[in-house]
Amino acid sequence: MKLGVLGALPRTFGELTEEAIRGVRAMGFVGTGLPAGDDPAGVTTDRARQIGRMFADGGVELVEYGRYGTNLVTLDGAARRAHIASLGQACRVSRAAGCPAVITGAGSMNPRGAWFPHRDNSAPATRDRLVASLKEAVKYAEDEGVLLGLECHTVTPLSDAATTKSILEEVGSKALKVHLDPINWMTWETIYNQAPAIQRMFDTLGADRLLGAHDKGAAVEDRLIIHISEAVTGQADDIFDHAALLRAASTMPPGFFVVIEHLKIEEMAAARAHLLEVARSIGVPFEN
Fold first, then answer.
1. Which CATH number belongs to the domain containing residue 83 in this structure?
2. Rounded CA gap, 239 and 220, in Å?
3. What whole-number distance in Å separates Cα of residue 162 and Cα of residue 140?
4. Does residue 18 sit in helix, strand or coil?
5. In this predicted structure, what is the pLDDT of residue 125?
6. What digits encode the pLDDT tens for the residues 28-46?
7. 146 near 95, Cβ under 8 Å?
8. Confidence grade of residue 99 (pLDDT, cut at 50, 70, 90)
9. What is the pLDDT of residues 204-228, one digit of tens each?
10. Dihedral pair phi/psi, residue 2, rounded to 5°
11. pLDDT at 215
12. Which of 2, 56, 129, 231 is 20 to 30 A from 30 via CA?
């Protein structure tokens, strides 16, 4: 099990520097993601190779190339095809840079955002479009020799581990996996009893369908209807069961990454220290 972080680097390839990459390693993290702010179609293969060498020289492993705004279920066929083609370009960039996986969401039927809820996100027709889109997109990953990872969420068509497993099985490609973010699957029924829920996620999907995990904090707000929000890892209002995540992640094959996300740079050192202490307290090691 290895510890990585997202958000410590500039958003674009043009802003990326060797100093910034070395800074990730200086903070004690061994992995991170490619900058996600560029259109991958505009990144040449030679530039991607150059970027990959910068990470290798800086001693930082590449974990993922996030394409989180992808929408694979929209009714707009032209837009859906464009999103699939963009994933293909991202797979090309990833391979050239030496990054093992491109991460995509399913998208949403909500026109205001790919991570927002909509009543039709669970409709059979939406699922059919998602499966069809993934069958096309994963061909690019197969051709390039990288993985296509799914970022899931309760409000999207990838609403829980069982649903996601069935979609993976229907697509039927070993190149399609899940980058698990347990908080994204928390519900009111599980937020105060997280350890069994997290273990079920790992058990349902299994080591062969998981490529890594995200870690972040969670908080329940004192409001008149249910609000579960993100929190800063390790701070007073963070009730996420990091121990349950690390315990399950430690049973995965060597090299499995737990990646901290959604923090400001000045919050990352304390979050890392918190996870290291949690890992020490439950007797599971991080690889260096």
1. 3.20.20.150
2. 8
3. 25
4. helix
5. 98
6. 999 999 999 999 999 999 9
7. yes
8. very high
9. 999 999 999 999 999 999 999 989 9
10. -120, 155
11. 97
12. 231
Cα 10 → chain centroid: 18
Query: Which amino acid, 108?
Result: S
Q: Where are the beta strands (DSSP E) in the chain?
A: 2-5, 31-34, 61-67, 101-105, 147-151, 176-180, 210-215, 217-220, 228-231, 257-260
* The token pair that represents 171 in the structure block: 């697509």
255: left (phi over 0), alpha (psi -120 to 50) or beta: left
pTM summary value: 0.96
Residue 288 belongs to a domain? no
Return the percentage of the chain with pLDDT > 70, whole number. 100
| Residues across the chain | 288
Between the CA of residue 243 and those of 92, 106, 146, 287, what are the distances in Å? 36, 28, 30, 17
Give the pLDDT band of residue 288 (cuts 50, 70, 90). confident
Do the bridges between strand 217-220 and strand 257-260 make them parallel or antiparallel, or are there none, so unpaired?
A: unpaired
Cα radius of gyration (the chain): 18
**Number of domains into which the chain is organized:** 1
